[in-house]
Amino acid sequence: MHILETMPQKAKIRLRDDTRGVSPVIGVIMMIAVVALIAAFVAAVAYSVIGNVSEVPSVALVEEGVGGGTNVTVTLTHYGGDFVSGAFTTIPCTELGDKWQRLELKYNGAKVSSSNANNMWLNGVDANYTWPANFVSGDVLKIQFKKLKTGDAIMILFTPRSKVLKRIMVV
Fold first, then answer.
1. Which of 36, 102, 136, 138 has the most other CB atoms within 10 Å of its CB?
2. What are phi and psi of 10, to 5 degrees?
3. Which phi-psi region, left, alpha or beta, contains residue 151 (left: φ > 0; alpha: ψ -120 to 50)?
4. Which sequence spans correspond to the domains of the chain?
5. Per-residue model confidence as pLDDT tens digits over 40-79
6. Distance (Å, rounded) from C-alpha 106 to C-alpha 108?
7. Contact 157/111 with Cβ under 8 angstroms?
C-alpha cells in the first residue's frame, strides 16, 4: 500500500498545493554552486600568480682567491646544479653594478659596483663587453675588488627571491 493511499483527502490536497519547500532547496543548491565556482576561480588566479614566482636555483659555487689585500681577484666557479637564466644583462656596461639582473653580488651588504671593484670578467670577457644572459655550469666569474680585509663579507644573491646562493667571509 502506497503512503498517499493511507493519507486523508485533505492532507493530499495540501501536499500537492504546498510548493514552498522546493524554492528554498533549489536556492541553497544554487548558492553553494556559485560559491564553489567563485572559490575555484580565486584559487586558479592565486595559483597562477604564485606559480610565476621563480624557484631558487640550486647552484654549486666554488670560490678561490679570497684573502685580504688590495686589488684582490676573487674567482667564483659554477661547478654544477641549476643554471640561472637571465643572471646578467647582455649589454656592455661601464658601471659594474649594472651588469646584474637575476643575480647580484654584494660586498659588505652593498651591491658590487665600480666604487668597490675594479673590474669583472665572465669566462675571460670583460664586463665592458657582451656577456651571455645565463650563468651555467662551467662559467667562471672573476671580480677584482679594490680592497678586501679580514671579516669582509661577499654574497651572491638570487634577486627574484632575495635568497643567498653563496656567502663568503674574508679570512
1. 102
2. -60, -40
3. left
4. 3-51, 59-169
5. 888 887 776 655 556 778 899 999 989 999 999 999 999 9
6. 6
7. no
